[in-house]
Every structure is written in C-alpha cells, then in structure tokens.
Amino acid sequence: MARGAFISFEGCDGSGKSTQAAQLARTLEALGFPVLLTREPGGTAISEKIRQILLDPENAALSETAELLLYEASRAQLVNEVLRPSLEAGTWVICDRYADSTYAYQAAGRGLDAGLVQRANDLGTCGLEPDLTLLLDIDPAVALGRATKGGADRMEAEGLAFQRKIRAGYLELARKMPERIRWVDAAGTEEAVASRCHAVLVRRFPELGKAGLHV
Ligand code: TYD
Could you please report the per-residue DSSP string of 79-102? Predict the structure, then answer.
C-alpha cells in the first residue's frame, strides 16, 4: 500500500487555518481518500494534556525553554502514536500546525536561538517532515482580532507585536523552503481561501485533481 501524504497548515493565530484544515479533511474524505485530521499541540490523549498546560493563561510563569520542550514532547507523542502509523497505513494526514510553528513562535516570536529550536524540532518530529505545508498568510491585526473574540489563550495574550514577529518568521521559512512551504493569501472568504489551497494541492498532488478536487 502506498504511504499517505502529510499536509500541514501553518499561520498566525486567527489566520483561518483550522477552518481550512477541517474543510480540506471533509473534502478529501468525500472524494474517497482515507483522511486523518489532527492538530498541534494535541492529537493524542497525552498531547492534549500537554496542550492544556501550554495554553492555560494561568501558566504565565512557564519558562521559554520549558515551553519549547512541552511543544516538542507533545509532537513526539503525536508522531509515534498517530502520524507515522497513519501514514504507513496509507492515510492522508492533515495537521493543524507542526514544527514550523515552533520556529515561528519559539525562535522568531520568543527569540530563542534558531539552531537550538532546529535541534529541538529534529527531536520532536523524530525526523518526520510534511510533504506539503500551506502557510496561510494574513495581516496579524485582522487575524488577532478574530482569534481573541472569545478571549485570549496564553499565546494569544502576547499581543500584536508578537504576532508580527511570528508572521516574519513564517515568511522567512517560506523563502528558505519554497518547495515544501507554499504561501497562500488568507484574506477573503472561506471559499476563496479554500480555492487557493486547492490550487496548490492539485499542483503538488495531481491525483487530487484527477479525483475531482475543484479549484
Ligand atoms: P491553538 O488554539 O491551536 O491556536 P490556533 O487555533 O491559532 O492554531 O493554540 C496553539 C497555540 O500554540 C498557538 O498560539 C500557536 C502556539 N504554538 C507554539 O507556540 N509552538 C508550537 O510549536 C505550536 C505547535 C503551537
């Protein structure tokens, strides 16, 4: 059986990537592909417990290094328990955030050393890289307003200047790895953004176009 494809969605808080990831999962399933939709931090019972620690606004005292290691711990569990076995079984895995988030948030955002974050990512991913990453890019001022409508989590509470650094980090990654990371304009309606994502997907995976994925 052919290995499944691993697609990650990235972007600032409120960029709409969770909506797009869920929509894509539904669309691919409707086209007959075996699909797993998951998220980071989270996606396993243990990783979801780590997520609660990471996002709890009461944990303001969490150190930057502890934060980095908790994201990686959550990831290593997800990779070994869910991602690798699913991909080996031929499932298309769609992940809402992955290791590029750690570069954008912990290196570009928090200011941790980029080489250190890279080594931590090597450990957390256990060497598993996405086949394609869709970077949903939008003005952080618009995105943060959306994301914090119902209240801010510990990361969102860092504010707009933090989100701007994250965006810059993502754009730098996309410039460095244009083959894997594809920039997508995340402004506009859900349908417009989905259509841009589909165009990128069909180019990378022609079998999706043949199966009827519409742009
Ligand atoms: P979440 O509510 O999932 O955000 P979103 O809905 O925007 O995806 O919370 C995840 C938060 O954790 C988000 O602010 C990004 C942050 N994060 C990191 O700082 N580093 C990481 O490695 C990951 C995966 C997420």
Answer: IIIIIHHHHHTTPEEEEES-HHHH
Residue 90 has pLDDT above 70, yes or no: yes
* pLDDT on residue 65: 97
Averaged over 116-131, what is the pLDDT?
A: 98
Residue range 97-112, pLDDT digits in tens = 999 999 999 999 999 9
121 lines ligand 1 (CB under 6 A): no
- Asked whether the predicted pLDDT for residue 1 surpasses 90, the reply is no
Closest residue CA from atom 21 of ligand 1: 102
Secondary structure class of 159 (helix, strand, coil): coil
205 ligand 1 Cβ < 6 A: no
| Rounded distance between C-alpha atoms, residue 214 and residue 67, angstroms | 40
Atom of ligand 1 nearest to the CA of 102: 22
- In which residue are the tokens 């998220």 written? 39
d(CA 204, CA 17): 19
CA dist., res. 41 & res. 38, Å (int): 9
Ligand 1: nearest atom to the Cα of 96: 8
Question: Of ligand 1's atoms, which has the minimum distance to the CA of residue 15?
Answer: 7
